[in-house]
Amino acid sequence: MLTLVRHAAVVIDPAVPSSDWRLSPEGREAARALELPGGSALTSPEPKAAETAELAGLDAVVDRRLREVARPWSDDYVADVERWFAGDEPVGWEPRSEALARLRDALDGFDGVAVSHGLAISLYAGLTFEEWSALPFPAVVRC
Fold first, then answer.
1. d(Cα 88, Cα 81) in Å, to the nearest integer?
2. Could you tell me the domains of the chain?
3. CB within 10 Å: which end of the chain, N or C, has fewer?
4. Would the pTM of this model clear 0.85, i.e. be above it?
């Protein structure tokens, strides 16, 4: 069974690329509290995901294909995400087809835990905008 884990809560800093954000104190505590199955584990290379995996007790192998959907900073992030879920491709965003292809390449047939990101997990698992909106930090999605 594939268990997808969205990273724990981060410290948001617009001056720092989101791919470099670190977990907040609350996020570190929540990651430690995760109860995940043992066995094989993968993680995105982004610090927030790798730190979530480590604090959750996973011996995870870094896989770049699990990184978040590439996109620029947005002052209206939720509206951009809603458009993206509706099939639009906001300027500068990684095309959905390319993101899904790399995620499938990493996860199809994988039996274990994969720590990644909200948009990446939602795309792979076929979640809706509303389901993405409801995902907590951290979140566990079983496929």
1. 9
2. 2-142 (3.40.50.1240)
3. N
4. yes
